[in-house]
Amino acid sequence: MTLLKTLTDADRFFHDAIPYKPMGKYVHFLTLRVTESYPLFQTDGELNKARVRAGVKDSATISRLTLFKRKQSTPERLVGRELLRTYGLVKPEGCEYNVSFAMDNADCIIYGFAIGDSGSEKSKVVVDTAFSITAFDQSHETFTLNAPYENGTMSANGEVTSRINQQDHIRPQVFFPSIVTLKDPTEASFLYVFNNILRTRHYGAQTTRTGRVRNELLGVVFADGEITSNLRWTQAIYDQMQADGTLVAPDPLNEDSVMEAAKQAIARLMQDEFIVHQDFIGTDFQALLTEVKQLTGTEAGIKSLLEQANADAKSYFEQHVKKQKAPAKSK
Question: Are 170 and 19 in contact (CB under 8 A)?
Fold first, then answer.
């Protein structure tokens, strides 16, 4: 069943069924992750950061905040799993993330699973560490946290509580360019990952009051190989914004300037690639983005997408995963 009408030559980009062996078709989602509150991307109580070159041309060294790959892919697949349960395609008791995978649904086959000796499936979604465009010093803030008593103060019965702590948070309007790659997509798996990226709103340390992040998709690139890294794209954006005079520290970056620089940077980087590719970036991407939003914005549309993605996954499971799990017959 064809779900998209915008891509007229979809046979070039998608497989009819999920292949067992790598077949050299890639789709890259060009994503700009924008913080909208004070999220925490941390390990061992400290914000993750890396000392790297500022730009491709600018050889200065700076510290950048980092958003590790699992901190990106896990929230997105959890959104997809939630939708599968919402529309009755996965039973809550039959497939539990990191506990007991059912192995035969869209999430398990597309994003992969590992269940010890019981079996595993390699993820077809590739996500790498993302880096902030701005330097660490401009991108984080230290807050003092407290836990007041019932009366709303920090003291009770004449004693002052010691429940005071400090925590570094990432500031709002910090930008993390990120390329999400899906290998050997079917049309339904492409739309499934696309929808998960658009819908995911919280990343990092999960609490009820922070972690808000918005994903802006700037385009997709269909190719017969992998493209540039997140770090190089980020460095190219930094160079472009420096040339345009739109790096205005300590003020937050202007989102329109970042998006324009990101499009120019990736277009320039794609010219240096030694692969066959077709790019849908900027205005070329708008028709596809509009169609996907219309499809996923109705109950009938999202349900048809999920059902097709799940059907592709079950077919793959029956042909390639279930056979491996079958016990050997005695001779």
Answer: no
The pTM of the full predicted model, rounded to 2 decimals, is 0.90
Instruction: Report the alpha-carbon distance of residue 91 to residue 105 in Å, rounded.
Output: 10
Token digits for 184? 């050997």
pLDDT at residue 326 tops 60: no
Q: Hey, what's the torsion of the CAs at 188, 194, 199, 202, to 10 degrees? A: 130
78 in a structural domain: yes
CA angle, corner 293, sides to 289 and 299, nearest 5?
155
pLDDT in tens, 153-209: 555 565 655 555 566 778 899 999 999 999 999 999 999 999 999 999 999 876 556
What angle do the packed helices 69-86 and 187-199 form, to 10 degrees?
110
Give yes or no for a contact between 123 and 77, defined as CB atoms under 8 angstroms apart.
no
What's the CA gap between 203 and 69, in Å, rounded? 11
Nearby residues of 331 by Cβ (< 8 Å), 6 or more positions away: none
Q: How many domains does the chain have?
A: 1
**What is the spatial distance between Cα 39 and Cα 153, in angstroms, rounded to a whole number?**
26
Whether 294 maps to a domain, the answer reads yes
Asked if residue 20 is part of any domain, the answer here is no
CB atoms within 10 A of CB 314: 17
What is the domain range of residue 219? 32-141+162-322
Is 330 inside any structural domain?
no
